[in-house]
Amino acid sequence: MLLLRHASAGERLSSPGVDRFRRLDEAGRIAARQLVWSLADRPITQIVSSPFPRCVETVAPISVARGLAAETRWELEPEAELDDLMTLLVDLPDTALVCTHREIFEKLLGWDAPCEKGAIWVLERNGHELVPALYLDPPAAVPAGQRQAV
User: What pLDDT score was predicted for residue 147?
Assistant: First the structure.
């Protein structure tokens, strides 16, 4: 499973109610388009996203390129409870791309796990657990010649 943090969306806005509508900035839109190529050799059969615009916009280019509709789920919102999140994730296929927020990464992996905007954690199943197996840098953060094989 690919767990993606949304791409760059500028600075956090004044209140959570207003911030939920924040959209990708120019750097985020570029990174979202680059994800199409970065993930070209990864099997993706389902795309699931937080309903926040910055997440939906991050997966939109991949959704179009793969011909897959992106499903939005409240369990991927920043305030979601860990139990609700895990119920969603364990039912998704290993070939799912899931786009969410820093707060969700912190709940799943701990506050000190890297999770740059536009970065991906490859999660593997170990029984009923999802285990972080590989961290993939954001596509715009690494020069093309030095990018990790994806």
Answer: 44
Bridge partners (DSSP) of residue 2 are: 97, 122
Q: Which pLDDT score, from 0 to 100, does residue 23 have?
A: 85
Query: Largest Cα–Cα distance in the chain?
Result: 41
Structure tokens that stand for 88 in this block? 């969603």
Statement: residue 60 has pLDDT above 50: yes
Q: How many CB atoms lie within 10 A of CB 105?
A: 20
Contact indicator for 47, 59 with CB cutoff of 8 Å: yes
Q: Would you tell me how many other CB atoms lie within 10 Å of the CB of residue 32?
A: 25
CA angle 30, 19, 77 (to 5 degrees): 85
Contact 46, 93 (CB under 8 A): yes
Tokens standing for 42?
Answer: 């990864």
Sequential DSSP letters for 55-107: HHHHHHHHHHHHT-PEEE-GGGSTT--HHHHHHHHHHS-TTEEEEE-HHHHHH
Give the residue from 13, 43, 37, 25 showing the smallest Cα distance to 117: 25
